[in-house]
Amino acid sequence: MVEKEKHLSVAARIDAIHEIEAFVEKICDDYNIFHSYYGNILYSVSQAFEFAIERTGKKRKHVDIWFESRPHGLVFKIFLGDRFLEIAAFFEKDPEEELKSDHLSETEKALLTIRMLSDEINFNAEEETMEMVFYISSINEHLTQDRIKLLDQYFENLKVKKPTT
């Protein structure tokens, strides 16, 4: 049975990234998410984790990550703590203007990438969390289009005419 909600509390150390990867992989396996969607989710969640632990020193012992399946998509929420204001403020900027900038830091480039890979980004100031939403409804549409193309190729190779509607 697929769980609709999960929680992971991971040590605030970069060497704990494998726990994040396993968490995302298990969820994507449960929901049959493959190819680029899996990569988008893994990159975004991993980078958000790295932002959460960057410059925290020994102040923070762990980082919490929550997963929730909603009708429109998969949601990953991460506690940012003292990085919340900095990251939320960056997301207020116009991404088109930021892409034109020649002076983006590596962190800003990664944040822009998360923004482009996620279908929706939400912030909760009270909880100091960033929520990344990945719509899964388009996955089925994509599969349908691929299947139609395969069927068209199949009939073309057989040189059989498809019935007209």
What topology emerges from the helices and strands here?
Blueprint: E1 5-11, H1 17-30, H2 35-53, E2 62-70, E3 73-79, H3 84-92, H4 95-100, H5 106-117, E4 120-124, E5 129-135, H6 137-158
Antiparallel strand pairs: 1-2, 2-3, 3-5, 4-5
Helix pairs in contact: 1-2, 2-5
Explain the overall architecture.
This protein is α+β, with helices and mostly antiparallel strands. The protein has a single domain, classed as Histidine kinase-like ATPase, C-terminal domain (Heat Shock Protein 90, 2-Layer Sandwich). It contains six helices and five strands; from the N terminus they run E-H-H-E-E-H-H-H-E-E-H. The protein has a five-stranded antiparallel beta sheet. Strand 2 and strand 3 form a beta hairpin. The model has no long low-confidence stretch (mean pLDDT 84).
Question: What's this entry about, in short?
Answer:
With 165 residues, this protein is an alpha+beta fold. It has six helices and five strands. It has a five-stranded antiparallel β-sheet with strand order 1-2-3-5-4.
Gap between N and C termini:
41 Å
Contiguous helical run count:
6
* CATH topology-level fold name: Heat Shock Protein 90
The percentage of residues in β strands lies in 15-25%
Order of helices and strands: EHHEEHHHEEH
Round the Cα radius of gyration to an integer and report it. 20 Å
Classify the helix fraction into a percent range: 40-55%
Major sheet: order of its strands? 1-2-3-5-4
CATH architecture: 2-Layer Sandwich
